[in-house]
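Escalation from tier 1.

The customer reports that the assembly of two entities below gives different structure tokens on two consecutive runs. Tier 1 could not reproduce it. I'm attaching the input and our single run for tier 2 to review.
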Amino acid sequence: MSTVYFTKDHEWVKVTGDEGVIGITDYAQKALGDVVFVELPAIGLDLAQGAEAAVVESVKAASDVYSPVSGTVVATNQAVVDQPGLINEAPEEGGWFFSLRLSNPSELDELMDRAAYDEFLTGLE
Amino acid sequence: MTETISGSRGLSIEEPLLFEQGSPGQCGVDLETPPDLPDHLGGLRRRQPAALPGLAEPTVVRHFTRLSQKNFGIDSVFYPLGSCTMKHNPRLNEKLARLAGFADVHPFQPESTVQGALALIDLAAHWLKTLTGLPAIAMSPAAGAHGEFCGLMTIRAALEDRGERRTRVLVPESAHGTNPASAAACGFTVDPIPATSRGRVDVGALKAKLGDDVAAVMLTNPNTCGLFENDILEIAEAIHGVGGFFYGDGANFNAIVGRVTVADLGIDAMHINLHKTFSTPHGGGGPGAGPTVLSDALAPYAPLPAVVHDAGGFHLVEHAAGSGLKPCGRIKGFHGQFGVFVRALAYMMSMGADGLRQAASDAVLNANYLQARLSGELTPSFDGPCMHEALFDDRFLKDSGVTTLDFAKALIDEGFHPMTMYFPLVVHGALLMEPTETESKETLDRFIDSVRGLAQRAKQGNAAEFLSAPAHTPRRRLDETAAARTPELRWRPEKKV
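Tier 1 run:
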């Protein structure tokens, strides 16, 4: 059983047990346009909540991806390095960036669920 | 239109790569076959001939001439690239830079034989110090970003001399990307400052981030939204209050030169892009020049060399020993981009102080004319007058199926270089236009008619023509995504373009 949480910076984190998989949202990939380059964090890196974790570069701009929660990087998705287009095609599935072992799960309480994130997006229109 | 057999259209020639032209054995010069010589290559002689094309001189000359004609350049079209200040470079600058005494001078010449060149560097420095009101200058930085690096290295040297280790540099969200890059290159951590809904630095947020670990605040004024940072004095006071330095990014100095004395803004260090404010050429990556003016507090830490003057003439200070200086180091070989100094000084002296002031005023007037006349069709991002550049967002394209990128591509067909797109990042789908003072009202009116017409066509549901634009360039719409994802960086004989 997993739950998805969202940040105001348009990252998502899908949490199963004490592990979270992180990526950027459909809104973010649309705003960026075609993604052409991704830089992922090193496995074993300790990230604080809100720390710069990855870089995503599109034909328009380069942006930082921030870690939605604190934790240690346990896996990265090499597929998006080889095929950055995966982030445009399936941002919440095959286009994930990295996964963390959460060090402070209570931080999840500060994030939005899908309904709250959708409402947040409506406010950005 | 009927396609031609060659693919060319009159003088618009279908241009193959040089490797695809000529034939083996052709050559620009006739050389006799050399006699047999002893081989000193130690077995490293290549076994097959190099795969170089065989080309006669006229083929090469025509190839590069035609390529140059396919450029969209400031000498061929209006080029309102926001934040880049693509203005006309007066030919007088070029004439003076080609004088033999300037063009043929060599950095290894004895000091006594280059007194005129040193005097020129000293005079250019004097103008820049006078125009900014700051007492010292480092002339050697080779570009704007290099000037930022120079300023931050100087700040770091000053802090270290005080025995302080400050780690953070505050940079507004709307800054040029070079600001955070320069700070990071100097070993600082970059802390972004958000903007207000008025497009200016959020002074409250800035003050909340200040502390005794902040080395500097970097601020561009006018900023990259084309707006004057009204709170600059309060920002200067706040950073000085915690013992940090105030770095001014002088990229947009062209909007205020002759009207604002930089020293009065509380700035400790500022680079000046000579190619922007003082009309030296924007090279394809160089040579640029970004001299950095410095306050009294930073002056001892300026990089060497420096030109000084005494009764015996001009001298170059190359080493710190015995000079009383504590330079942050040397940041460039030799003495800076001398040829660019000649052009910049020629411009400054031919314009005069009053002319420079007039140029800044005209640049702001032209930008406001664009903003006023385009605001009916386009959506300006912020209320009120702008400085030297006008910023629009993509609200006017909402539901049209046309993006900022498509709109810019269509402008190429109209015979204009597109404006800056998607920068600054603080507005959605940005279109940033900088007309500069060198454009006439007639040019601006032609541009305005095209932009307004395109905006109307986009709103009337003609998305398809925008999505395939430009239609009148040699290769039409390029696939930028494929170019970035699968770049072809090298010609290979088996791969035809």
